[in-house]
User: What shape does this take?
Amino acid sequence: MSELMHVSGLTFRHSDQKRWLKKPEVFALGPIELTVKRGETIAIIGENRAGKSLLAKLLVGAIPADEGEIFLSNVMYNAAKKKSTKSYNSSNDIRMIFQHSSEAMNPGIPVGRILDEPLKLNTELSESERKTLIEDILVKVGLLRDHYYFYRHMLSDGQQQRVAIARAMVLQPKILVADEPFAALDPSVRSQTVNLILKLQKELGLSFIFISHNLGIVRHIADRIIVMDGGQIVETGKTETIFRWPQHEMTKKLILAYQSLVPQQTLATSE
Assistant: This one.
């Protein structure tokens, strides 16, 4: 697999305002170094406030970094707040799927218009060309062409999540970043969504970076795992290596917690 993305020195610092009788809280993330290969699935795991979601937002350009560079498709972007010749957050090669798909959908706008907006802003396609592309994307994610006309209240939770995936895919990115995409779904829908992601990856050669507390899903679909603690990457490695021989204390803690919830027979089978 060829290298698609390289992150170098990505750093973010945030300080809350000082309050009465309370010291200001300072959270620093990084410096982060990581690479993503074409067709690879990377899982980012860690406890709450480890910096996982913040890192995801920095990677897609939703939040500017204080320092750092991101190389994407052999183009270098300055990810920091200062102005640069290339605006990283305008890159369409990397898009994000949010955790709560329903909250990201305007209830007064049909699916077609929701998916049409990024195309109108980022392409020169005609209206008919955009409609055809949107209908094709809907089919790819397991929906019907007629869902183009549906509103949010007409869709199940699983269908709303598929619309969220379609919106992330409509500009044909090379990397999809997903922040807890399965957390709000019931087990059967979650399984369908996982299978959909694996199918899309195989068909389109997409790379995935996803954040999840569900280590069962992580073990099932991730090629590589990044473990975060206190805004730092404390361990990284191939999925089975991390599960079988965790090195850092935080990794051991997460794996032990996972093993305590999984029937020992299941663990023995997976070994």
Summary: The mean pLDDT is 86. The first strand starts at residue 3 and ends at 15. The CA atoms of residues 5 and 72 lie 5 Å apart. The two ends are 26 Å apart (CA to CA).
